[in-house]
Design brief:
890 residues, alpha+beta, Beta-Lactamase, six-stranded antiparallel sheet, 31 helices, 54% helix, 18% strand, elongated, disordered C terminus
């Protein structure tokens, strides 16, 4: 085949190595040969031998055809013996042209010249034997290929030879002259066999590489056709000349030699130009990024490309004398760091480069025992090793190994190239380290090394973003102000005060998880942002642990110092969803902890005395937002435990604030309750919820919706009248609406509440006791009130699997509700284990993240359609179609 693809894995020739961008599959395959000492792994090796056997069978089958072995019957004066064919084949294999196209180099052999001359002037036996012997000498003697590769390539050449003879004779017929029909026969034979060869090589790449790529197959076949036609055309000119006069071989050989000489000169200049272009691209790549890891990755990649090598690594000397050097290499497109072994670090050759600063060239075929040991320890066949210099001298080494190809090895020019790469890399790494240092200093406290206020705000913003996106359930912000630090500073001096602050930072980091940001905001004030904290209890537990660690005496220069801390905590989303709000509220809680002497406080709305101006503005904005429709509902589905069928939804209020974005209930419900806006807000949510369930029922979904009434809402006749009007307006049956009320709201005015609940019951609206088990839980009122369901608080449900006490509470509530004929809804179901346990207890409905997170009401229909696919028909329960309640409170 004339064109040698850069990805030719089974025949990784010296020609293939000149590709500026070798195919990834071939690179991995070459690596496999290198790591296994030139032999493929067991399974790929067996597969390649299988392909080899198939090619031999094709050769035998084709040779058995009389057409293949028919004599030429030519009157030509030129006749080629088998040894002459072998000599031609060997010469063509040794002479390869590298054609540069953009940034890729394509290797073209002149093998078709020997093929065409053999077809016209040699006997079939001489042609096959000559090609086989010539190729065997080239593969084994010149390229020194492994046995598996020799067998494959030899079988491929023999199969090519028999197929070429068959096609040539088939198309040429019995015409003995060098006619246009003979031209066509020669072109058809070389082109068709070239395509077959491309297919065979691509299949082998697929077997030992990473799979068959149709694009590679088509591309290599097209290239093979084009190059085969080009070389065959030149060969036909030689055929005509030799057919006319055998002595024409002399001027043709002289012309060919001169052309090859000129090409070699051009090729050398082209290679130098290409090397300069590679160095330019390398210099630009490593200088365009300030990130040290990106620079290292670029150094390794471009070092391999510039020197056409399979392997590269950078080794840095350790900062401490007793520590081993660190090696950085690239594995699967990722940087890998490991330590040199004791033998590798003590190797005399490597030590010579580090101490003397002289480069090291280790070519293939070395007999020196030390060189062979070095190459074996690095698992390469040849290598170039040069020093990497820094401001303080030699800081490490850069090594490339395994020169692409079977013939060529590294030379002195490669040493100079790698020295240039090392110089560029050294400058880029020093610049990158300087930029990294400047960035670190800009984002960290100079005294303690902790993140500063800027870094803390950035980290807090990222965590809040995760909460907004639903990837985190919540987060906590803590501010800690040291107690007694001023006395230490004044009494013992600033030096010991600085040491104390450093130790405080170390202790804080030792208490918390690695994903917690601990920062020093200034003076003796520290702050923490803690991802994935969802409850005040969890935050308080961590705060107590932190406080206990800070109270332990600290020994500084033989002085035992004791300090305490006042810690304030705010939670997202409960206390805010922007960094400024959370910091202010954690700060308010911290001052409360300091003033009250409690040492640890969680933010409460009552601490907002200093925010009256902001609150007044927010109240005005909330009033306007209710009027112009900025409130919107999100819904969370509820499903029947036994079947998984969705029975309804709970509607959850959100405020689409024009400046602050989407606000959660805990950020504005307390404000609405204190300002008297809770009533119009409840009516606005009720209107949206009933309208939504009306749309869904019109679409054929027999669903219910539940709206939660705030604990501070007044359950009055206005709610009854509004519900009746809205249900009629949207054509929703009253039983499709559930109103959730809390035990505390019932107990505040039980007589008045009972009258309103009776009216709602008479209307047909369903009633539910929310967060059952956390309030008064009066059995008498539960028995007397016209409620149809109870909702188990998620605080019990979420810990069922880990707390036997909570599991017992849930079971008791389920049993009690069952005895009273009430439907039980469990909220906060986070996993299938909890779902199954609730089913065994006899719970009716569940909701929680395991089923679905809250979603905009407009997105519910699409979610429901996906959810219903494949579900079993729903079993009827005491409440056939229930929808969880939208908490106006959260």
């Amino acid at each position: 085949m004339a064109l040698m693809p850069a990805a030719r894995a089974a025949d990784v020739e010296d020609t293939a190595e000149s590709s500026a961008a070798p195919h990834a599959a071939a690179r991995r395959t070459i690596g496999a040969f290198r790591r296994s000492g030139g032999a493929l792994a067991t399974h790929p090796n067996t597969r390649v031998l299988g392909v080899t056997g198939i090619l031999l069978l094709i050769a035998v089958a084709t040779w058995s055809m009389p057409l293949t072995r028919q004599s030429q019957h030519t009157d030509a004066q030129t006749h080629l013996a088998w040894w002459a064919v072998a000599a031609l084949v060997l010469a063509c294999e040794l002479v390869v042209l590298h054609i540069q196209v953009r940034r890729e180099a394509h290797a073209i052999s002149l093998s078709e010249l020997a093929v065409v001359l053999g077809l016209f002037f040699a006997t079939p036996v001489g042609f096959v034997v000559g090609r086989g012997v010539g190729s065997l000498i080239a593969f084994a003697g010149w390229r020194r290929q492994a046995i598996v590769k020799i067998l494959f390539n030899l079988s491929l050449y023999v199969a090519e030879s028999t197929l070429t003879l068959a096609l040539f004779h088939l198309v040429r017929g019995g015409d003995p002259t060098v006619s246009p029909r003979a031209w066509t026969a020669a072109c058809a034979a070389t082109v068709c066999v070239g395509v077959v060869s491309s297919v065979a090589v691509t299949i082998v790449i697929a077997l030992v590489g990473d799979g068959l790529r149709l694009r590679d197959l088509v591309t290599e076949s097209i290239r093979g056709v084009m190059s085969s036609l080009a070389v065959t055309s030149v060969a036909l000119v030689a055929v005509h000349a030799l057919d006319a006069d055998p002595r024409a071989v002399v001027p043709m050989a002289v012309a060919l030699a001169l052309q090859l000489f000129v090409y070699r000169a051009y090729s050398g200049l082209s290679e130098r130009h290409l090397s300069l272009e590679r160095l330019y691209r390398f210099s630009h790549a490593v200088s365009s990024t300030p990130e040290v890891d990106e620079i290292l990755a670029g150094v390794l990649e471009h070092a391999r490309e510039v020197l056409r090598a399979e392997y590269a690594d950078v080794v840095f000397l350790a900062s401490e004398p007793d520590e081993p050097p660190v090696r950085i290499s690239e594995v699967a497109a990722a940087l890998r760091r490991d330590r040199l072994s004791e033998d590798e670090a003590g190797d005399p050759l490597w030590v010579r480069v580090v101490h003397a600063g002289t480069p090291l060239l280790l070519q293939r075929g070395q007999r020196d025992a030390g060189v062979r040991a070095f190459l074996a320890s690095r698992k390469v066949r040849d290598a170039v090793l040069v020093p990497l210099r820094g401001d303080a001298g030699i800081v490490g080494t850069i090594m490339v190994g395994d020169r692409m190809g079977e013939v060529r090895t590294f030379d002195e020019d490669d040493v100079q190239l790698l020295m240039t790469v090392a110089n560029h890399a050294s400058m880029a790494l020093q610049n990158g380290q300087l930029v990294d240092r400047l960035r670190h200093d800009a984002m960290h406290d100079a005294l303690t090394g902790l993140p500063n206020r800027t870094a803390f705000n950035r980290s807090l913003g990222q965590v809040i973003g995760e909460v907004r996106a639903g990837r985190l359930d919540g987060a906590a912000v803590m501010i800690a102000d040291l107690v007694g630090f001023k006395q230490v500073n004044d009494t013992l001096g600033h030096h010991l005060g600085d040491l104390l602050l450093r130790e405080i930072g170390v202790r804080m980091e030792s208490v918390v998880r690695t994903d917690v940001t601990v920062a020093r905001l200034g003076g003796d004030e520290f702050a923490l942002v803690i991802p994935d904290v969802v409850s005040a209890e969890a935050a308080l537990a961590l705060g107590r642990e932190l406080h206990a660690a800070l109270e332990e005496p600290i020994g500084i220069e033989d002085v035992a110092v004791e300090v305490g801390a006042s810690i304030g905590i705010s939670l997202a989303p409960s206390h805010g969803m922007d960094g400024g709000t959370l910091l202010r509220r954690a700060d308010a809680a911290m001052y409360e902890a300091k003033n009250s002497g409690s040492q640890l406080e969680v933010y409460d709305a009552s601490l907002d005395a200093g925010e009256s101006r902001e609150q007044l503005a927010l109240v005005a904005e909330l009033r306007q937002g209710i009027q112009i429709g900025e409130l919107e509902i999100h819904v969370q589905p509820q499903a029947i435990v036994a079947t998984g069928r969705v029975a309804g939804v709970e509607a959850l209020v959100r405020w689409r604030h024009p400046r602050h974005g989407l606000l959660f209930p805990d950020e504005f419900i307390p404000l609405a309750e204190r300002s008297g806006l809770i009533r119009p807000m409840t009516l606005a949510v009720l209107a949206q919820a009933i309208a939504a369930v009306g749309r869904w029922r019109a679409e054929g979904h027999d669903l219910t919706v539940a709206v939660n009434l705030s604990a501070r809402s007044t359950i009055n006749d206005e709610v009854v009248d509004a519900a009746a009007q809205l249900l009629a307006e949207h054509g929703v049956p009253p039983e499709a609406l559930t109103l959730e009320i809390t035990e505390s709201s019932v107990m505040r005015d039980p007589m008045r509440t009972r009258e309103v609940l009776d009216r709602l019951h008479a209307l047909g609206v369903r009633l539910s006791i929310d967060d059952f088990g956390t309030g008064y839980s009066s059995m008498s009122y539960l028995r007397q009130l016209p409620v149809q369901e109870v909702k188990v608080d998620k605080g019990f449900v979420g810990t069922m699997s880990t707390s036997p006490e909570d599991a017992t509470i849930v079971r008791s509530i389920v049993d009690l509700a069952g005895n009273l004929g009430l439907v039980v809804v469990a909220e906060g179901v986070e996993d299938q284990e909890t779902w199954d346990a609730l089913g065994r207890m006899g719970c009716d409905l569940v909701q929680g993240y395991h089923l679905a997170r809250p979603m905009p009401a407009d997105a519910f229909s699409a979610w429901l359609a996906r959810r219903q696919v494949g579900l079993l028909p729903a079993a009827r329960v005491a409440r056939d179609q229930v929808a969880p309640a939208t908490r106006v409170t959260g």
